Amino acid sequence: MKTLLATCLCSLALALISLAQSPPPAQAPPAAGTSPAAAAQQAPATNVPPGQPAAPGQPAAQQPAAPGQPGAVGQPGAPGAVTSPAPAGAESPAATAAASAPPAASPAAEPGLLGSNWLIDKFRKGGPVMWPILIVSIIGLTVVIERIFWWGGRWFRRDPKRIEKVFTAIENGDTAEASRLARGSRDPVLRMIWNGLNHQHASLQGALQVAAGIEIKRAGRFLVVMDTLVTLAPLLGLLGTITGLIRSFSFLGNEELAVQAVTGGIAEALIATACGLGIAIFALIPFNFFTSRVSNLEFELQTAATNLEVMLGAQTAEREMEIAGTAPTTGKGSSI
Questions:
Q1: Of the N and C termini of the chain, which has fewer Cβ atoms inside 10 Å?
Q2: Domain spans in the chain, listed from the N-terminal domain onward
Q3: Does residue 151 sit in helix, strand or coil?
């Protein structure tokens, strides 16, 4: 029990630490239409002296021209207006390609579906009900892992061959050998048989019932907790649904924030409901499996206890018949 509680608290602490970490800031994508080549072309455009030809690939509209000079832009009747490298307002092919190309998406801006940032974001959108749902999920996961290890050890502790040897020794009337074989075993059936053999003179049936009850209690440990979690998780999800809908309807009066607020409240309701149902489904399957294993163990213990009572009862009846058969002979001989 102490180990289970320690594991549960450690898991809860790790979950809280991971949720407390803020996601890395997203990098803004570069502005559309800007590129290093276009920036390099725009920088020296204002430093071109009048009267000099424009550099290749530089817009003609950015080159100043003196009045009266051939090729001056904006001067009426200038014959050299068509001799500029590019018409007014035109851009170079590199700038045009950079403007038409879509902006590259930053890899850190959109976290993956299974990333921690996505989980934290969904947890925060789920509202305050997600905290008890998180605690319930950690407790359920801890109980399932503990029961898996216990039943795995129970599988390795089974010793059907020794059980057969014990019943063979009891059938032969050697209860001391049967007690020796059952002593120190980790099999629940053998432990019950050993307890019954050691207390058969006081109350065989009572000793078997006490030992079987102890073994069944060990096998059914924490099943009540799992049953509670199966019922509690959907109720918490329903509570999150109600709180999300209340939040959505509380913003309907504000026309500016109505759409965004209502959408956030509905998302909160759906996230909480999905998490509650998921935890219930996750806990229901192991709960039914462990319950069936407890029922099987109870049947094995009852069967072994019944066989032990029948064998010991038959041996007691045989001894009583032998005593009853020899008693008249002894009395007749003494009377003579």
A1: C
A2: 126-230+279-317
A3: helix
Closest C-alpha to 301, from 193, 227, 222, 206: 193
- The continuous run of DSSP H or E covering 278 comes out as helix 258-335
**Tens-digit pLDDT profile for residues 157-191:** 888 899 999 999 988 888 889 989 998 888 999 99
Q: Is 254 helix (H, G, I), strand (E, B) or coil?
A: coil
Burial bucket for residue 284 (CB in 10 Å: 0-12, 13-18, 19+)? middle
Q: Which residues contact 322 (CB under 8 A, 6 or more apart)?
A: none
Compute the residue count for the chain. 336
- 41 contacts 57 by C-beta, under 8 angstroms: yes
Residue-wise pLDDT for 272-325, tens only, equals 999 999 999 989 999 999 999 999 999 999 999 999 999 888 888 887 887 877
Tokens of 143: 């109980």
d(CA 131, CA 142): 17
